[in-house]
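Standup notes, protein team

Yesterday: finished cleaning the Streptomyces lycii set.
Today: FAD-dependent oxidoreductase structure.
Blockers: none.

Input for FAD-dependent oxidoreductase:
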Amino acid sequence: MHSPQPTPLNLDRDVVVVGAGPAGLMAARRLSKAGVGVAVLEARDRVGGRTWSDTVDGAWLEIGGQWVSPDQSELLALLDELGMETYERYRDGDSVYISPDGTRTRYAGDRFPVGGKTADEMERLIQLLDALSAEIGATEPWAHPRARELDTISFHHWLRRQSDDEEACQNVGLFIAGGMLTKPAHAFSALQAVLMAASAGSFSHLVDEDFILDRRVVGGMQSVSEAMAAELGDDVHLSTPVRAVRWDEAGVTVVSDRVTVRARKVIMAVPPNLYTRVSYDPPLPRRQHQLHQHFSLGLVIKVHAVYETPFWREDGLSGTGFGAGELVQEVYDNTNHGDTRGTLVAFVSDEKADAAFALPALERRRRILESLASYLGDRALEPVVYHESDWGSEEWTRGAYAASFDLGGLTRYGADQRTPVGPIHWASSDLAAEGYQHVEGALRMGRATAEELLGEPAAPSRGHAP
């Protein structure tokens, strides 16, 4: 016998927010503190979006986004306001570099141990990208006089126009392609790479793991969203995917599986690739349809390997390793605060992830652990817990870490990413300038969108439903 379906909840609010990740919750928090009635609708059974801290096989893991860098002022201010603490990523000891010919080298400092010519070329490319990111900036890169020139050549080919040193090009490309956009460097433009660098303050910041991967949150990054959601209480509704947004001059009706909300405005605080999971009536304009088709997430496997002890430290290693030609292109010590066990986090990106996912699960695990062992020794082959974060299979994400445009898309559509459609507004880390594709960018977009709505002429409050 089927149990009766729960009666749908009907609410009147000022603003309805779709998505309970950091962007949506920040928007709702800012609006609520200003006395605006809000409802947050989330498809998942949890808050946090692309941040997720959970226990897997007895090991506590940061399945999603996790790091805090010194320039992330919005996130740092929120952590301080919420009374949350951070701790430094372990980084004492030597790092490991694996060259294109497979040679393994231990090194200290923040520059790869490459030959003199390659080192000079890497430095020159980094300085060139630093200059471009400073000149073009993160706010409106599409408006720069050189925007079209840089947006119609892939980052792969742009690098090789600047240098004939293949190792230098691969190493510099790694920090954007594998490390950030999680797409092959031939699949996105040089302008998209410049935006990524500018959003972090400079390209030099991206190649300095001690800056970009500086600290972690005690209790996990998801706890930031959980704290914001706790403040909002019953205004956050989980396990209720939004199916339709119906809008007219009077406002919107947002229909989800368990809740229907009538409001003046709606904030779509989900990744852009999920916009089309919702039916809009009337349909979105042609411009939005086209934009969304040229804006996609990348692909990465975030690998967690937990060991009885952080054995690499005994050998004077930091746990950090890089190899542009390896299956695992990056590995870091990800040991949790106060934990006696050691945890490594490793990344398999873009086309390497395609190849890994084509393998049976046990074979994929074997090859990934062998790649880890090439950096840190054979003890890496036998973790007590092994887990792969596969965000590409997550129904309400479908990729990582954030959306980027295909060739030419940033200049063609970038200026329209956040253009409202009637009462529909857009907010996510994918649309950020500073903090693009990080929690920082999500929080900035949530706050900015809320403040845009607060700056509009007031309408009669829809308040909290009894």
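Follow-up from PR in the comments: The chain has a mean pLDDT of 95.
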